[in-house]
Design brief:
single chain; 269 residues; alpha/beta; Ubiquitin-like (UB roll); Rossmann fold; 2 domains; nine-stranded mixed beta sheet; 12 strands; 32% helix
Length: 269
């Protein structure tokens, strides 16, 4: 009886093992053929559109060593880490494989928000050298120097603050107090259609907006940005109707303070 049970068991094992063995042999011979080698690296934005700030040719150069390798031997995480380290404008990168011969690279880019300049109070309202001006996004990530990306810099508004310019470089994160409030102020200016050249931060909770007509607005970063912007719009509309000009309006107090013939002296404030 036992011998018969063992025989039945062996027959079952044989029947189940044969298909597995056949499949293994088929896969072995398939992998010996000249297939499943990487011949294409497909690079796009995550939404399948074009990249705005990263040169696809640069990514192709970095991933060139993966061409010709077996598709299934490539570790996608290795490519993701490589690109994330090499390209500061990459926010997120996703790498996958498409049979039979393609690596797919999909990228989400950081969106530049400001050109950051660090310096002293005396230099807040003057332009720094290109290699000391840094492109930052709305999270404070330093993406590149203007010397390396002049075209991107030319489209951005300036943000100047007090600090050592040599202490900020691509890959860093800016740790300015009230940075979120600065982003909110920039957004309010944009939404309101107000033309300005830049924002200076003479004190950690104070922002000075330099408008296109050379006038300035002083805002409290610890206060309600939206309310201050509404006050700016209504105040300037009234002044324009009255034909009055000004150098600066200060919104840090209960009522706007109008300075007709001079700017605030941040060396003494």
């Amino acid at each position: 009886m036992k011998r018969k049970q063992v025989k039945v068991l062996l027959q079952k094992l044989t029947r189940s093992a044969v298909p597995v063995l056949v499949l293994a042999l088929v896969l072995f011979f398939v992998f010996q053929l000249n297939v499943f080698y990487v011949s294409t690296i497909d690079i796009h934005a995550l939404d399948e559109g074009s990249l705005s700030y990263i040169d696809v040719g640069d990514i192709e150069s970095e991933t060139l060593p993966f061409l010709g390798k077996r598709l299934f031997s490539i570790k996608t995480g290795e490519i993701e880490a490589l690109l994330d380290e090499k390209f500061p404008f990459i926010d997120r990168v996703y790498v996958s494989k498409r049979i039979p011969d393609t690596i797919l690279i999909r990228i989400v880019e950081h969106q530049p928000s400001f050109v950051l300049s660090m310096g002293s109070v005396e230099t807040l309202f003057s332009e720094r050298p290109a290699d000391e001006r840094m492109i930052v996004d709305q999270s404070g990530n330093v993406l590149a120097a203007c010397a390396d990306e002049p075209d991107v810099c030319s489209d951005l508004k300036g943000l100047s603050a007090i600090g050592n310019p040599l202490m900020t470089s691509p890959g860093d994160t800016v740790s300015l107090p009230y940075f979120e409030a600065l982003v909110a102020l920039s957004h309010e200016l944009s939404v309101s259609g107000i033309d300005y050249s830049g924002i200076a931060v003479p004190h950690e909770s104070v922002a000075v907006v330099q408008f296109a007509d050379t006038s300035r607005g002083v805002f409290s970063l610890s206060g309600n940005i939206s309310a201050q912007m509404n006050s700016y719009v209504s105040t300037t509309e009234s002044l324009n109707l009255e034909g009055r000009t000004f150098k600066e309006i200060d919104f840090r107090f209960n009522q706007p303070v109008l300075r007709v013939d001079k700017y605030s002296d941040w060396m003494t404030e």
